[in-house]
Write a structure and sequence with these properties.
Beta-Lactamase, 5 strands, about 55% helix, elongated
Length: about 260
């Protein structure tokens, strides 16, 4: 069925390799704008719940994607004034429907901006990210139209909820992949540091006829004296020992304008 196909396509956008969350959100919003019946623009926002100095919990935007620039402007106005369907959806954690913004009384400060930006009707669905470390993240998936009463109430509300769920699951997967990549990079750096420190210790042990503990103590003493990390001192020593330290460029003889 085309609904499940669209949901899978949107979910796949967030799982693509080497795709940043901002780009994934942009792609999701464009796919929704093209695929959802009656939709002329879409907005996908990633939020994080934080605790303010006053002890109150609130949601702040970490990334968002909008299929059209006018919708971006309308959302930024919502976020600034704390009025509008998107901020209400994440605040109340429920689907928010707007049949016609001109018949709305919930957000009086947002009405004129919505009309200027062509946002007459919309459906916005929040969805929590439930993966490990994602307990405070929420995604809102909004479909918008420049026409009043643009969405089939028997189809689009459920479709929007399905798309929000697939998008949230995709971003959870992308987040786990990014965490794994960071951990792998950290391990590589740690292994590289361990290798160069062992090489430096070997050089000191050979030169001084001491054991490994004494060699490491000597490295640490030099590092502390020069306010450097042990691995930096080790790299300098290995480079100097192997002759790979970059040599200063020879000074060029001063010449006149004629080159003599």
């Amino acid at each position: 069925m085309w609904i499940e196909h669209l949901a899978r396509d949107i979910g796949a956008l967030g799982r693509e390799e080497n795709t940043a969350s901002e780009r994934a959100l942009d792609q999701m919003s464009r796919a929704a704008a093209l695929g959802v019946p009656g939709c002329s623009a879409a907005l996908v926002v990633l939020w994080r719940e934080v605790v303010g100095k006053d002890g109150l919990r609130r949601h702040v935007v970490t990334d968002y994607g909008a299929s059209h620039a006018d919708l971006s402007e309308a959302f930024e106005y919502q976020y600034t004034t704390d009025q509008g369907p998107t901020v209400e959806a994440v605040r109340e954690m429920r689907q928010v429907r707007v049949l016609d913004v001109l018949r709305e009384h919930r957000w009086p400060r947002y009405t004129s901006m919505a009309v200027q930006c062509g946002d007459r009707s919309s459906i916005t669905q929040p969805s929590k990210l439930t993966g490990e470390g994602d307990e405070d993240r929420v995604l809102t998936f909004g479909v918008h139209s420049g026409r009043a009463d643009a969405f089939d109430e028997g189809v689009v509300p459920e479709l929007t909820a399905l798309l929000a769920e697939h998008a949230a699951m995709a971003l959870q997967t992308a987040g786990r992949r990014a965490d794994a990549a960071r951990e792998s990079a950290h391990m590589r750096r740690a292994m590289s540091a361990r290798t160069v420190i062992d090489q430096a210790k070997g050089i000191i042990m050979h030169a001084k006829g001491c054991d490994a503990d004494a060699a490491f103590a000597a490295l640490r003493e030099v590092a502390q004296r020069n306010r450097k990390r042990v691995v930096e001192v080790a790299r300098d020593l290995v480079a100097e020992s192997t002759g790979s330290r970059p040599q200063p460029s020879p000074r060029r003889r001063r010449t006149g304008l004629d080159g003599r």
